[in-house]
Predict the 3D structure of the following.
Amino acid sequence: MFSIENSSNKRRGLLLLSVTLALVSMSTPAGAEGNAGSQPPVPAGAGVVQTNPTTTTAAATTTPSPGTSTTTPPEATDKSAEHAQLQSAPQPAAQEVKLGSPAERPADKQNSATEPGKNAPEGTAPETAGSAEEVKPKKKGKKDDGYYSTIGPSEKSAAEEEAGKPDRWKKKKKEDDGYYGTIKYAPVPKELLEQAKNPPPPPVAPPAPVVVPPPVQPASSTGPARKFDDDTGNTGSITVTRHINKAREFLSSGHPDFAKKHFKEALRIAPEKAEFYEGYYESCVKTNDWSEAINALDRWFKLDPDKEKDYGADYGEALFQLQRYDKATAALKRALTFGKKQEQIHRTLLKIAQVQQNTPAIIAEYNAVLAVKNDGDLQAEFGGFLERLDRAPEAIPHYKAAVKLKPLDAQLQGRLAYMLLYYNKDYAGAIAAYNKAIAADPSSQALRDGLRYAEQQQELAAKGCKKKK
């Protein structure tokens, strides 16, 4: 018999058997064809040894003598017919034939344990052919690492089989983090089941409110009705009104640069509207656009000459900012005749005189401003100017006037004390001024030193007077 090792296909075994018989018949001599019927069968194990599950090789066979007669069994006739059919099919490549006894072939020893009647211990019945067929070949499975390998038929433990757990070769379930875990469904309450069987009717939506459209205004007789709710205002133009409203909004919110653009656009469309120039001039001043401010005032004065009385001082200020001092002086002196904004006009004339270093004009404008408004800072400023001109006797009255207006100014009090001490030799007045200055600023060491010096000079002066007497 031919043993087939590790093969799960019976059909492949029959095919290999047919090929083997065909090879044996082809190796028989031509003279022995007549005695084929009396040829004895080939003994088992003497002709073919299979060393590979998928390959069968032919071995040397013993040829009977020409005188012996052989009878062809019916099985051989059937095999010959099958051989004729298989010749047309592609034949597998024959491998090397290995001859030898069963002792030299380890594969036969291994297969003999599965063949019926071989190597059976005494006293035991040989296995039948059916029992040999019941031994199933090993199957290919998939282990945990995902690679195919040959494993046993079943290696599950009895506890796993009883519990119905999956094989340990299958993919493990990650039950801890919730992936591939067994889902346990909670029982559905009876109330929900009844509610599902008898669902409540859907809620009835309230009726939509009826929106009454606004009444349509009839078209005017003078022209078609406006499509948008825009107001032309007193300009008669929707665009101009829009620009003016935007400009005033930006100007009041602290954005004069945007306001100036809208004022300029509105005046481009309606240059005859004199009331727009005031806002335009203000936006130009806040953006330091003095050239455009002068243009705005010029056009405004042409449309409304009375506005020159109110804005003549501003016109001179704009010329001063453009360093047009001669024109600014003339415009400011003209504005003085209107009797408005006198302080502003004289202050601007004072700045022009200081730039031109005109001392008589400076002194005149200081006196003119102080005549309009007695200001402490301006008195101290005027006193300092006269002190720098070495006109201390004229400066001291202005310092005294400034101290009266600003009694808590320690620096101003100290300056007056110094002037009284060094120029007027008024030691008592200097000591009084130093005391007021120290009261306003107790941490000043310079004021304390000045007070000590004034007291020493007063004592020396008193001693000198006694010596003269």
